[in-house]
Amino acid sequence: MRVTANETAGAVVLTGVTKSYGRARAVDGIDLRLDRGTTVALLRPNGAAKSTTIGMMLGLLLPDSGAVEATGVRPVRPVRPARREHSVRIP
Fold first, then answer.
1. Which of 22, 53, 69, 71 has its CA 20 to 30 A from that of 79?
2. Total domains present in the chain
3. What is the reported pTM?
């Protein structure tokens, strides 16, 4: 069986990821690798940036620094603006 580079890479990889809101640093240098088929739970108190981290994993938010890859692809802009541009409003 031949294994390609994409098959050995993590499904989601965060490297040195930071995210701030104004002067408040929400995410401070996270390094995380999730392999295919892995189940994880992010357990922290309220306000610990769990949703911000997941948003960056999904491409809904871009990090201020560091890199996020999902299945080998780095988002270049958040998906939310594109979703608004292509959405349809039903009266």
1. 22
2. 1
3. 0.72
Say which DSSP state 2 is in.
-
Here the tokens at position 67 are 């890199």
pLDDT tens digits, 40-53: 898 988 988 999 99
Question: Within the chain, where are the H helices?
Answer: 5-8, 50-58, 79-85
10: CATH: 3.40.50.300
Measured CA to CA, the distance from residue 3 to residue 52 in angstroms comes to 33
Is there a domain that residue 90 lies in?
A: no
Is residue 51 situated within a structural domain? yes
Q: Is the pLDDT of residue 77 over 70?
A: yes
CA dihedral over 23, 21, 68, 32, signed as positive or negative = positive
Residue 82 is which amino acid? A
